[in-house]
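Narrative summary of target 7.
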Amino acid sequence: MATSIPRPHITEPETLYFEPGAGFPNSRLPVLLYRQVLTGEGDALAAQFETLFEAHQWPPQWRYGLLDFDHFHSTAHEALGVFRGEAHIRLGGPKGQELDVAAGDVMILPAGTGHASLSSSSDFEMVGAYPPGQEWEVERGDPDQLEAARERVERMPLPADDPVGGTLLRLWRAAS
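Modeled conformation, tokenized:
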């Protein structure tokens, strides 16, 4: 029996822009934050996110929390679906913006975007997904490597779809 694709609640996402700095390239593309895309919590919500991401050509790769140090991925765009708990995070690197996320939220980070968990509930977890052919790595913002990281970020192709079926392509094409 085929798994049905969840019907997400899609509104216009919050768009966040971050300038390069302190070893973090960030991106000319905005971070997209969709609030309360799916309802529920726990493993059932994780499975819904995995099915939704897969249906939009962002294969899920892991279930875990968010690392507690500023880092980025210069070789992959990243979709993060919160399926349990809540967290106070920072986007954009050490001098970035702090915000709160909770179960049901989805963040889409263009390659190069700094991110870290500043605090979280003990049960906080997300599903992580990436466009096909993009391999993520963890970089910690070495200022001596900023130019090379920025060049890798600039070479990253746009994905074929938004992982939740929203407006990513329109917004990212406009910023390209």
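The helical segments are 43-55, 146-155, 168-175.
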